[in-house]
Amino acid sequence: MGWALSPMLPNSDCIFCKIVDGKIPSTKLFEDDSAIAILDINPITFGHSLYIAKEHYATLLDVPEGKLPGIIKNLQKVVSALLKATGCEGFNIIQNNQRCAGQLVPHLHFHLIPRRPNDPIHFNWQIGTYQNEESQKLAEEIRKQLAE
Ligand code: 5GP
Ligand code: ZN
Questions:
Q1: How far is CA 16 from CA 13, 22, 141, 145, in A?
Q2: In sequence order, which residues have a C-beta less than 8 Å from that of residue 68 and are 6 or more positions away?
Q3: Cβ-based neighbour number of residue 60 at 10 Å
Q4: Could you give the CA distance from residue 140 to residue 87 in angstroms, rounded to a whole number?
Q5: Beta strands 109-115 and 90-94: pairing type?
Q6: Is the C-beta atom of 105 inside 6 A of ligand 1?
Q7: Given CB 3.0 to 4.6 Å as the disulfide criterion, which of 14, 18, 44, 47 pairs with 114?
C-alpha cells in the first residue's frame, strides 16, 4: 500500500481510522463526538499522547472551514489532565503536516508531549536571519494571499 496524503484516502487504509473505530486496540484516554486521545505507542517522553480527529482529514488544511473548533474543543482539557497525571508543568503540542514535515500517519492528529526540566528532548532549530528586504517582501506576499 503506497503512502498518500489525500483526504480521499479510504478510511479502511488508515491506521488512525481503525483506532477510532476500535478495529486496532489503543490505550484510550478520552473520547467525545469529534476526537479521541490515546497514548502514543512509541512515546518520546513519558505520557506522550495523541489527540486525533475522529473524521479522516489527511492534514490540518483538509479540515472543512468551521470544523476545527469542534475537533479541538477538548484539547485543553486533555492536556490539563495529562499534565496533572504526569506531574509535568510544560508541554509541547506538535502537529505534523505532510511527509516533509515528519507526518507519517496522514490523519489529523496533535502530539501532546509532556516536558520535564532537563529532559532529553532537544529541537534542533538552526536559527537564521532575513537578508535585506526579504522579510518585508515575504510579509507583503502573505498579506496578499490572505486578501485573496
Ligand atoms: P506523525 O509522524 O504522523 O506525526 O505521528 C504518528 C504517531 O503515531 C507516531 O508518534 C507513532 O508512534 C504513532 N503511532 C503509529 N501507529 C500507532 C498505533 O498503532 N498506535 C498508537 N497508539 N500510536 C501509533
Ligand atoms: Zn484516517
A1: 9, 10, 36, 33
A2: 60
A3: 15
A4: 44
A5: antiparallel
A6: yes
A7: 47
Under 8 Å between Cβ of 59 and 108:
yes
What's the chain's Rg over C-alpha atoms?
A: 18
Cell of 51: 489527540
As annotated, the active-site residues are: 109
DSSP tag of 60: G
Whether the CB of 100 sits within 6 Å of ligand 1: no
Per DSSP, what are the bridge partners of residue 113? 92
88 lines ligand 1 (CB under 6 A): no
Round to whole Å and give the CA distance between 109 and 57. 9
Residue nearest to atom 21 of ligand 1 (CA): 41
In the reported structure, the alpha carbon of residue 139 is separated from the centroid of ligand 2 by a whole-number distance in angstroms of 34
CA of 105 to the centre of ligand 2 (A): 8
Residues 6 or more apart whose CB falls under 8 angstroms from that of 84 comprise none
**pTM of the predicted model as reported, rounded to 2 decimal places:** 0.93
